[in-house]
Amino acid sequence: CEDDLSEDRDELLHGISELDITNSDCFPSQLLVHGALAFPLGLDTYHGCVIAAARYGRGRVVVTGHKVLFTVGKLGPFLLNAVRWLDGGRRGKIVVQTELRTLSGLLAVGGIDTSIEPQLTSDASVYCFEPTSDVGVKELQEFVAEGGGLFVGAQAWWWAFKNPGVSPLARFPGNLLLNPFGISITSQSLNPGPFRTPKAGVRTYHFRSTLAEFEVIMGRKRGNVEKGWLAKLGPDGAAFLQIPAEEIPAYMSVHRLLRKLLSRYRLPVATRENPVINDCCRGAMLSLATGLAHSGSDLSLLVPEIEDMYSSLYLRPSESPITVDVNCTNPGTRYCWMSTGLYIPGRQIIEVSLPEDAASADLKIQIGCHTDDLTRASKLFRGPLVINRCCLDKPMKSITCLWGGLLYIIVPQNSKLGSVPITVKGAVRAPYYKLGETSQEEWKRRLQEHPGPWGELATDNLILTVPTANLRALENPEPLLRLWDEVMQAVARLGGEPFPLRLPQRIVADVQISVGWMHAGYPIMCHLESVQELINEKLIRTKGLWGPVHELGRNQQRQEWEFPPHTTEATCNLWCVYVHETVLGIPRSRANIALWPPVREKRVRIYLSKGPNIKNWNAWTALETYLQLQEAFGWEPFIRLFTEYRNQTNLPTDNVDKMNLWVKMFSQQVQKNLAPFFESWAWPIHKEVATSLAYLPEWKENIMKLYLLTQM
Q1: Looking at the UniProt record for this protein, which Gene Ontology cellular component terms does it annotate, in alphabetical order (predicted)?
Q2: Which of the pair, 313 or 360, is modelled with greater confidence?
Q3: What is the pLDDT of residues 171-185, one digit of tens each?
Q4: Distance (Å, whole) CA 386 – CA 644
Q5: Which of 602, 570, 595 is nearest to 580 (CA)?
Q6: What is the structure's pLDDT at 428?
Q7: What is the pLDDT of residue 362?
Q8: CA 306, 386, 28: angle at the middle one, nearest 5?
């Protein structure tokens, strides 16, 4: 197959050694190349594909992972090659979608005339466009089958973000068109940079051929494939299995193959004590089994019982269905998870029922809260993907669960559905405590009677998810959660956010996370070693909460006043200092050794000794700038400023303009000219901004003056 397509590949890549999108200012989607007549053209170091091509019927297709790639000047030679290849020597009419008119200019430079049209025309030879709806999909597929050329640019990660629980491989408009061509657009993004091109005589990763080799290796228990291919095969297989396979023999054959492999070979269990290497057959099997389960296959007879942090040999679902009332009102501006207090054991097919009006309210269901994707980890302490999301679009729904996990209802933004009864067959109850609702006696009973291995502690502003084993020593969660509510109130107050929060933040512990010791997001993720830091009130009051509050601060950061990469790990620590001093009574110098006064002074002097340069103004050094302002003017200017930013629109987006706006707004808040202060830190202050602030009084107490005088 690869040899048959080598001439096509050579024509497309003639004169091109790499596809460089370093300065494209976009994050393209990764493409899944799965058709027998489809082939990759640009790959990153992890074999992630950014551009691919295929033959289909008498026609041809080229796909890029983002429409912005149609405008990248460095890709000019490739864009010309692609259009000529798609035209197939006909010298026919090249139609460019109206929204992509910039592409016409790039093609014109290479001598290719185009016609800008809102849609495909009957006399077109090649059509360049971004698919944004499912309108005309059949006509476009027929256009290619009959000899036409399609040049497609689209990303699916934003669509996936806006449609949680809906598979982009199955429902994204671009994939409704492209799946039959053997190329699909995934929700995984790629970093902009140079992408290597396949070389003649060198094997290139392809999903279907690697899957065939995987089957041979599993059968013979020996052999090998190229480095990194099996680590890629697992997530690619899981993605491929999301494509609807009904009545498509080539797709159904993959399902049959994986079921055969699972029935023949034991599914590995990854734990911290016995990790699974990702780039091997066992690692690939973990991802492939997950994908097969998510496709709806019943694996209960194929997969042996699993004993890991999410499942237990002794955990059995309730014999009768369990009904819970779930609050499906969401006043927030994004979707949210609503806890049910239920846990789904692994290897189950659960049945969920809900009222008909709720089935048309865009609700989703999610099994599991451990959302980190570990497909790029070298070692796995758990399955790389252990949650399952899907739409609750029918009054009765069956859902396959391989790994087990707490059960959530995902409620869309601005939902006013109210309380909805959800009935689940195949679940058990899990320990759940809600501040102000659960009594101490009820909590003790739940710990004794609810067998779910994970539980939750909740307030209106924060939900902590930890192993039940850690909760058993917590006789009365009320003092702990009242302290957490004080913390959350301080977090909201500094950020200028209304309190109580419209939606609670979440912190989830996991045996393995995707990056760092903790990381921000929804939910905030941390390692199991941090559980005591979350649920031990005495420990919190004595040693503090720097890590969790750092991530809560990350969630408070706003692009309008953030200057990445300089302040990414800096401004979030303002929340750490504020919470430790105003809630926990722990001074900044004790809250973190990095804020011990001699350490702070040394840091500033080192920065100045090298010649102040914004390139070196990062992390703790950047935080020092803000702390000097806070120590001089207090917290109120920050609170007022963050509040003001929330209410402003049409703010600048580049760092220099954003920094100048911050200087102006902070100076106005404190009624002092702070331009000289920020200039001493090497901020790029515009002359007109400095001039506009000259009417304000000088800040005579500017501590940087002392540093600069003693630095000489």
Answers
A1: plasma membrane
A2: 360
A3: 999 999 999 999 999
A4: 41
A5: 595
A6: 95
A7: 92
A8: 150
pLDDT at 241: 87
Indicate the average pLDDT of the chain: 92
Decide: 597 and 589 in contact? Cβ < 8 Å: yes
SS (H, E, C) 198-249: CCCCCCCCCHHHHHHHHHHHHHHCCCCCCCCHHHHHHHHHHHHCCCCCCCCH
**Which residues touch 711 (CB under 8 Å, ≥6 apart)?**
605, 608, 609
- 676's enclosing H/E stretch is helix 675-680
pLDDT band for position 308 (50/70/90)? low
Neighbours of 260 (CB within 10 A): 13
CB 225 within 8 A of CB 150: no
Tell me phi and psi for residue 540, to 5 degrees.
Answer: -60, -45
DSSP letters for 311-351: --TT----SS-EEEEEEEEE-SSS-EEEEEEEEE-SSEEEE
Residue 118: CB atoms within 10 A of its CB come to 10
Q: How would you classify the pairing of strands 348-353 and 415-425? A: antiparallel
Contacts (Cβ under 8 Å, ≥6 apart) of 299: 262, 289, 292, 293, 347, 400, 402
Residue 95's H or E segment, with its range, is strand 93-97
Give dist(CA 128, CA 88) in Å, integer. 15
Say which residues have a Cβ less than 8 Å from residue 3's Cβ, sequence separation at least 6: none
Cα 666 to Cα 297: distance, rounded to the nearest angstrom = 58
- Residues 618-650, buried b or exposed e (16+ Cβ, 10 A)? bbbbbbbbbbbbbebbeeebbbebbeebeeeee
Which two tokens mark 624?
């020092």
* 643 closest CA partner among 508, 492, 518, 514: 492
Instruction: Considering the chain, tell me which residue range(s) the CATH 1.10.390.30 domain(s) occupy.
Output: 557-711
Using an 8 Å Cβ cutoff, are 506 and 552 in contact? no
**Cα–Cα distance for residue pair 644/657, rounded to 1 Å:** 17
Do residues 69 and 153 lie in contact, with contact meaning Cβ atoms separated by under 8 Å?
Answer: yes
For residue 233, what are the CA distances in angstroms to 3, 240, 682?
21, 10, 48
* Closest C-alpha to 185, from 231, 146, 240, 233: 240
- Distance from the first to the final alpha carbon of the chain: 71
Orientation of helix 249-264 relative to helix 229-240, angle to 10°: 120
CA distance 369 to 436: 24
| Three-class HEC string of 617-651 | CCHHHHHHHHHHHHHHHCCHHHHHHHHHHHCCCCC
d(CA 445, CA 439): 10
Decide: 608 and 708 in contact? Cβ < 8 Å: yes
The confidence score (pLDDT) of residue 280 equals 86
Contact by Cβ (8 Å): 14, 222: no
Q: For residue 306, what pLDDT is reported?
A: 59
pTM, entire model: 0.88
Instruction: Locate 419 and state its tokens.
Output: 């309380």
Amino acid 322 reads I
Query: Any long-range contacts for 649-652 (C-beta under 8 Å, 24+ apart)?
Result: 651/560
Nearest-angstrom CA–CA distance, 189 and 225: 25
pLDDT band at 25 (very low <50, low <70, confident <90, very high): confident
Q: Which amino acid is at 11?
A: E
In this structure, which CATH number among 2.40.170.20, 1.10.260.40, 1.10.390.30, 3.60.90.10 belongs to the domain 557-711? 1.10.390.30
